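We recall that each integer encodes one residue's backbone shape. We quote one record:
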Amino acid sequence: MRGIARTSVAVGVSMAVLLVFGMFAVQTALADGDGEPGDASFQATGTIVLKQSLRGEDFMLLEDVTPLQVVGGHVAMKVPCNRNGETPLQVLVGSASESGSALVPVELEFIKDISKPGRDCVYHADLDVDVIKGDLLAESGREVNITDIALANSGKKRIHFGFDNGNTVTVNLLTAPGEDENHDDE
């Protein structure tokens, strides 16, 4: 029991350190000399050890960067898979908000060389924001800024994660919405 508590504390401390450095980076990026926020970007990386289980047709939030927006990134994960190297887990990207949520799955690439089908497999995906925004527009009928990344179990059965399962999410963030390049002032 103590080992689990120490691991939880270590993960919590690690996430807090990442958050502090991330907030420092945001504050540094926002300062443009006159105290006004400007367009700036930075990168944040978070690693989550998956120690619990995930019910069928449920999800867990991996990243919420509101009020910032994701403008690129990468997701990698080591999770349970079947003998064919398939998993019911999906990475969903989009926006979860009170005004309406829109999330779409990103295509995960199976990494055969470091996977053990029937046990654990490694998958990754680059977050191509143009493709994701097009999918979100088609799905929701509106333009959506990407602020949330989730791990979803699309199957009906509960998935139990092993002691060495986890994921890493690296996102490139924009601190303020930029001007639309195709916007014409009238």
In short: Residues 1-38, 178-186 have pLDDT under 50 and may be disordered. The two ends are 65 Å apart (CA to CA).
